[in-house]
Model the fold of this input.
Amino acid sequence: MKKGDTAYGFQDASPCLYPILKAFAKENRRHLTPCESLLWNYLRRTRSCGYHFRRQHIIGDYIVDFACVEKKLVIEIAGAYHAEPRQAADDSLRSEWLEQRGYEVIRFSNKQVLQEIENVLREIDNRIKNK
Done:
């Protein structure tokens, strides 16, 4: 896949918004949450089934926690604020937008990542193998 390929997602971003998203994604990569950091260490180390993941990756006007561009798989880690009605509605719209572009979105709670990391990794590997 070439960098100009639309699967990279940045081409879908609003031109006026992209520089802001890029700076925000860069900042997010510097300050991962403990759960993001834990999952990133596993994804980076194991290269889940041989596939490369990006962290805090821009797709359209969104920044996703993790993305395997080649398999069009997005992984989101949901902290407590994702249970808030407004955030849950925003997450639903975001997932719908991504799915319309061929991405599969899977979400894990902070608790799952912290307490059930092996199950989380198994689920990710299963999703990759089935794509």
